[in-house]
Amino acid sequence: MAGMNSATPTAPAQAAPDPLAGFRPDAVRLGVFLLALAVGALLYVRWGCDSDVVHEGHSIFAWVAMHWRLAPDFRINWAVLAVAAIAAWREREALAAAAVRPSWLGTVVVGIALLVHVVGYRSQLPRLSIASVPVALWGLSLAVWGPRVARILAFPCAYVLLAFTNSLLVELTMPLRLMASRLAVLLLQGVGIGASNNGTVVFAAAGGGFQFDVEEGCSGLRSLVTMTALAAPYAFFTMSTNVRRLALFALSVPLAMLANALRIFSLGVVAEGIGMRLAMSLYHDFSGYLVFFLSLLLLIGAGSILNQDWRARLCALKPRRRSAA
273: domain range? Predict the structure, then answer.
C-alpha cells in the first residue's frame, strides 16, 4: 500500500566456511601412517625399557610417567605434552592445506631414531629411548606427508622432545648450586653486605651473622625446568622470526639462573636486616613464588627487547640527528 515503507528482507548471514570440510586424506597414506604408528607404539611398549622390569615394566611410556610422578621438578612436563597437543591442533587448517610430498629423508630420520632406541634399550639408558620417540614421530610425518607437514609439526615434536630430555638437567644440580651461591655473594658484596661462600654455603663474612646452605631443592633446577618449558611456547607464539625464537629460548637458561641467584641474594639481605629466623622460615617459602614471577618478568622483558625492530628505530633516529645538526 502507498505511504507504507516496505522493508526489504535481509539475507541470512552466512557462516564462515570450514577449511576442513573438504579435507579428505588419502586412505592408503593414512593407513600406512596409522599402521607404522601402531607398530612403533608396540615396539616402545613391549621393548621400551629393561632397566627395572619388576617396578617399571617394559613400556618406556610407563617409565617416564613414573619418573615424572616421583620427581616434583618434572611434573610440569604433563602440561608440556598438553601444550604440544594444543599447538598441533591449532595448526589443523595449515595441515589440511599442506601439499603432500613424501620424502625419503623421513625414512632415514625414523631409522636413526629407532637405532637410538635400540642403543638405549641394550645399554639400559631409557632417556635415550624416550628421546627417540618424538624424533621418530616427526620423521614418520616427513616420510608419509612431506616437508610442509613436517615443518608445521616441528614445534610440537620439539616441545615433546624437550619434555622427554629435560631430566638430563639433574646432572647440573651441583654446578647450579655452586653458581647460584657465588653469584649471590657477589650481589651481596655489591650492596655493601660482607658475605662469602664455602662451596654451596653462604655466610656473613664478619662472623656470627647469617649462614645458610644452598641445598638441592634451592639449586634452581625446578625454575630452570619451568623456565625452559614456558620459554619455548612463549617464544614460538610471540617472536616474529626463528632467530629471535631461538635467542629467547637460549636466554631462558641464564635468566632462570639469575632469578634463583636473586632469590638467594634476597635471603641474605633479609637475614642481615631482620634476622636469620624470619629469612629461613616465612620469607624462604614466599621467595619461591617470588623467583617464579621474577623469572616470568625477565622472560617477558627479554622477549619485548628482542621483538623490537631495532633497525627501524635506528633509521628513525638518523633524520632527527641531521635536523638537529
Answer: 172-312
